[in-house]
């Protein structure tokens, strides 16, 4: 699936990702800036905070309990906020657009 990352200045990076990987893994292994992922994907740092493009919120789905708790410590959380390490990519996410927050640059 093709995933597009858009940074806070509007720069786009499209990555051809593998289903089963997380959005965080795709970003860090492709040097996409704006996702720090300090805890390595354990849902324990909230530095992989991203905004899901409005057209994709339903496909990606809502955060689970632990993720929602971690999001409370992230900056600038919105209704479409998710932690990228908790989003496992599926074939249905082909074309997904996520935005990275300025606070992670
Ligand atoms: Fe730490 Fe996602 S990488 S919460």
CATH topology: Ubiquitin-like (UB roll)
- Strand arrangement in the largest pleated sheet: 2-1-5-3-4
Number of strands: 5
The hetero molecules present are: FE2/S2 (inorganic) cluster
CA(first)-CA(last) distance = 25 Å
Return the average pLDDT rounded to an integer. Answer: 97
In percent terms, what proportion of residues is strand? 15-25%
Following the backbone from N to C, one meets helices and strands in this order, namely EEHEHHEE
What is the CATH superfamily classification? Beta-grasp domain
Structural commentary:
This protein has 105 residues and is α+β, with helices and mostly antiparallel strands. The chain is built from 3 helices and 5 strands. The protein has a single domain, classed as Ubiquitin-like (UB roll) (Roll). The structure holds FE2/S2 (inorganic) cluster. FE2/S2 (inorganic) cluster (FES) binds next to loops.
């Amino acid at each position: 699936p093709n995933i597009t990352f858009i940074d806070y200045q509007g720069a786009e990076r499209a990555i051809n990702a593998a289903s089963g990987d997380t959005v965080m893994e795709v970003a860090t292994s492709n040097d996409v800036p704006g996702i720090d992922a300090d805890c390595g994907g354990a849902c324990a740092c909230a530095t992989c905070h991203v905004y899901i493009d409005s057209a994709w919120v339903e496909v990606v789905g809502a955060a689970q309990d632990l993720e929602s708790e971690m999001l409370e410590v992230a900056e600038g959380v919105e209704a479409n906020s998710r932690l990228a390490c908790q989003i496992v990519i599926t074939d249905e996410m082909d074309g997904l657009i996520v935005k990275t927050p300025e606070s992670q640059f």
